[in-house]
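hey all, quick one before standup. I had two proteins in the batch that finished overnight and I want to keep them in one place so we stop losing track of which output belongs to which input. First protein below, input sequence then structure tokens straight from the run.
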Amino acid sequence: MAQTSVSGHVVNKATEVPIVGANVIIKNGNGKIAGFASTNTEGAFSIDVADSTKLTVNVSMLGFKKYSMPINEIHTPLTIKLDDGNYSIKEVVVKADRIRANGDTIKYNVATFTQKQDRTIGDVMKHMPGIDVKDNGSIEYQGLAINKFYIEGNDLLGGKYGVATNGISANDIGMVEVLENHQPMQVLSGIGLSDQAAINLKLKNKSKGTWLLNGQLAGGVSTQPKGMVWDGDLFLMKAQPSYQTITTLKSNNAGKNLESQTTDFLENERNTQLSDYVSLSLPSISSLDPKRSLFNRSHMFSTSHMWKKKAVEYKGQIDYYNYRNKMSAASEITYFIPNSTKVIREDRNGMERGNQLTGSFVVEMNKKSYFFNNTFKPVLKWYDSSVGMSENFQKVESPNFYLSNKTKIIKRFAEKHLITFYADNEWENLTSTLDVNFTNQTKGKIYQKNQDHAFFTNEKAQYAFNLSKVQLSLEGGIEGYFRKLDSKADGVAVSVAGEPVQYGDLTTNYLKLFVTPQVEYTLSRFNVDLLCPISYDSYHLSAADDSEKLFVSPTLKLRWRPIQGLSMTVTGRLNESPTDLHDIHEAPLYADYRTIVLGVNKLYTTKNKRLSGNFSYRNVSEGLFANLILSKSWQDTPTLPAQRFSDDNIISYYQDVASFSQSFQAIGNISKTLDFIRGGVSINGIFRRNSSAVSSEETPVHFVRTYYSIGGQVNANLNKWLYMTYAFKAFGSSAFSKGTSLDNRRNNVQHRFTMDISATSKLMFEVAGDYFHNQQSEDTYKDCFLLDSKVKYALGKKIDLQLLTSNIMNTRTYSYSIYDTLSRIESVRYLRGREIMLSICFK
């Protein structure tokens, strides 16, 4: 018989949230059942029935009024909206299927975690246990960074997934999947074991293969800075099996930092190793949301495209970021020196501006027998900063150009054999200029220009053989590094130990031959991995004698998974590494108007030992996730970091004195869903302790620094019209050193709460506040309270009108203290004042 397919979605009429588990029955003209189904996690259903001219759809769900409607004249797919219904029942407990596990795949039902105030999928993921969305936008699962971010199984964005988490509407995602122990290259399936997980976003059926558009436009006024404020963004996306694209445009001067949305969270550090010697940035405030203190004007554009043709993927990505940030702060820096202290007070007012244009162009073939990837990335940055102080005016300009091309080819044959070829070539040019003019004419001026060029190449091959439970591999190749630094200084005579310094060219080059044997053994749930890189390095340095070094760096990793959901990993490593080539230079280089950095003229090696443990547990049926990371490291170095004062200058350098340091770190987190209030709770903690030594005024000083943080968060739907969150964090630091007056402790407490009240199905009120209790000295504390509010009104299904008020109490300043090596910085930062903005959001 001919068949008719009846499909559609069932949603809550008041909230348009998909209803899971609703019973859908199709009846024919005689009232007999022609077909039935239950809605899935996206509220969708599909039923095949025999042809009939009189069909009726009937829908029922506990807590909703029954629905019945003839469909003989209605085209599918249907959108069925159920009204809330009140029923008297006896002790019925309903547990939502919020999280499910299918082997190593954890599936989060987005609808059961979404709150009315959530706009993007990133907002929703912050409620999901086991998933940690950091302040900068990066994502961790069970304490480890993810290694891939997929949309419908496709890696469109690479590591720049902040564009997606801050852009894709929560209403377009049906499921967030965590792929544990994820191996992104199919050719390594069953061979390479990964500790990291990947994230995959599953779109709702209605959102697949169609253009998705959302955005907002907001405008208003501010009291500090005084004037107009705006915040706007536009997000466009389409996901098809053979083509996927995302384009977003954002602009604001309301304190939103857009840089993280163009950051590649999966990219390793550049092997060109160039870093700017000059720094004029103000100290950051780790406990305060940047939108409180960032006086900005930022614009961002990003477009990403992926085409699939048979087994080949072509991906192109272009990002542009432009910003202008103003800064204003008053600080007092106390330097702890033997038997004394030195205090420097500064009032800084300045501005930094920057432009960044980046691209990524990828060709990839990912098959079970063959893998090919070629990635070409150009990066162009312009940066300048100017800071005015009572005694001087400083200006820095720093253009930077970077190119990289990386190629990887893996061939698998006879199931057990792998051959890999890898080529990495990178080039970078970094120029920085420092120009300082003093108000006191007798001090003259400082002008310094550094032109830094570097080229890095790494060419290697690997053969791997899989023999039952043992995998053997051998990798070898050649690595080269060629760098030239040209430094110039005018306007001031610079001398060290009474001798004038000659500025000029510097070269730091090396060639490395390396081989890396590896043995990996897997037995049931136990895995042992032994890796032992061996390299022979030949260094040619214009500022030091040529030298040759042999380095051996073994690593042993043990992993045990005794039961499903429990994983324990212990890793030990011995490592010997050369001096940072950035520290080798003849001429003294200015970091700012008063800080001079002296280089070393020898190539030293540092010995490192590290032991770490990673423990994670999950019980999906209970919504319970927990992880603990412990690490201990030891370091032996033949040099000792040093600092001394010369008139108004601080000179940083190294002494030829052996030094030893050690550190310990513990990071833990536990989170659980609370289904009875459709919420969750989490507790986290951090402890760090570092023991090391420096030289102050030619005197070795041993010091110990500690940091701790413990906090938690709970979120709950107390009833259908009230949603609340509360977060608590207690954190502090201490610093102690023998031979100086440094013996200080600072303890701070932070509270944050939000309360959302749904007055009607269209009107919502939100109040949010931050309370800080910061210790300034032994007996002095500084309190700061910041309060925000929002009123949201739904003009329609896809348009919301919002009125936002920030910093209602108009708090103007924030005081805090931080510790560096042998110094304490007590700072007062100016905050953004009261702001009122009206926004219109569409989806």
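OK second protein, same deal, sequence then tokens:
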Amino acid sequence: MTEITIRKDLQVAMRDGVMLAVDVYQGTEDKPRPALVAMSPYGKDLQAQSLELPPQRRPSPLWDGCLEAGDIARIVAEDYAHVIADLRGSGASGGEMVGNYNAGGVPLGQDAYDLIEWVAQQPWCDGNVGMVGVSYFASMQVFAAAERPPHLKAIFVSGGHYDFYETTYHGGIMWFMPRAAREGRGGDSGIAVADVRSRMLAEYSAEEVAQRVAARLADPDVKRWPTLEHVLRYPKNRELWFDIVLNELDGDWYEERNPITLARNIDIPVYVQINWGRGWTVDGSIELFKTLKGPKKLDLLPYPPMQERPFHEVHGDMFRWYDHWLKGVENGVMDEPAVSIFVEGTRERVTVDDWPPQGVEHRPLYLRPRRKLSATPEPLDTEWAAPDGFYQAPLTVTDKVEMLTWSTEPFEATTQMVGTGAAHLFVEIDTDDTNLILRLWDEAPGGGRQLVTTGYLKASHRELDDRTTEGNPYHPHTRAVPVEPGRVEEYVVRLYPFANAFRPDHRLVVELSCNEPLVDAHNSLLPPEAMHLPSGRATGHKIYRDATHHSRLVLPFTTD
């Protein structure tokens, strides 16, 4: 193993006088070299476990989602300095963190700018700076690049979270995993809290906060989930999650620090990378890629969704990128197509020049009686093709998640799909709201299956906006419109981007429910609390799929 020189607890002054604590790892040879900067609130000392803990795959009990700063030994061996910093309000750093991603306090991008410029002036750095780390660390790279520090030459963002509303509310349905990452639950160490504050408590009067808390507790979904009531009653115990629970609609709260909005300012080279199976993050990664102005790459990686921890995967891709942009090595990385797509099923890589790829045609697969999916719609009216249905009792009184499934006949030839999709469902609901959760599977002849993609929609968030095109719906999530009980209405659910080739004799299977199964082949690959807030209403659902109501999937078939 390469010998490492370690500088611990260096103090770096920010423009407002707050001091950030930084550790630096580098080779023993005393010379300037490029530096890779990692920033998060998860604790720089935790990241040093990459020197001692072998990488763990989910569902290992030692897998820790906060070990994300990169493989220190490998980075040093490749002749880079590895700089790991605690964000303000966390770890050994001073100052306070206000709101998630510091949305209410000093913008984190400013701190990143100041740290990068400090690094570039150190005798052990040659003035060429990049950044490293997945998830929160990756999002920090976007914040940093948007501030345009002169010495930040390129970034490599893998597994980041960008549209933070869509990270915490999938289709308007609350997702618990960001809470785990902040608090340290179910496979995450959480934030190394030093001084973390709620933005809601900082900006709103006690009366205004009390009114919003009361409104959230009036939602049966929230009221019937005890830990959420605890968060709302005792916000100082859970400052960051309190803010998220109180902001269930998209808008200025999230957009002010939305990395995708800020990415319009980025013109340095950016490599964007994400694994299939994390649909919401794939959507955000693609949106980030399309927003960027400078040299860029998009790399869509194989399932499963969660990389090993401590994070060490894809370092080969990263060093190839940084060797070119930080060391000036002509390795051909920019001579290749901009987009690389791993296609599940055939497990082949496809390279194209842009996203979405050319040669894709959105075609329908219709829901039919007897739980079939067909290329042709049902010819009989409702009287003869009576709707499918299910009743879901709240999980306060049952542990059974009800689910409907439809499937194609076995494919006769390899059938490839690449892109986004949609589900058009004509549903009659007997309460004022519910969840619509879809999961598409590639099922092999023996019954083995792998997740293809997912879709989520809170029924009260069904409005579409003008970005919507065939097979690519968008919901603004800026207001909730209660369901009219007993009315048949079309709900269009966005299916997150995917790439899958269904081989001969395989089937496409779609599941519909309003809650998720607590345990299955996909969820076991995620941390234990990576689930969505269940519906708290006792709800009946009727799914109409007849000559009048063309309930269907609209999927991106490749034609080349």
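Flagging for whoever picks this up: The longest strand covers residues 415-429. Residues 4-336 form a domain with the Rossmann fold fold (CATH 3.40.50.1820).
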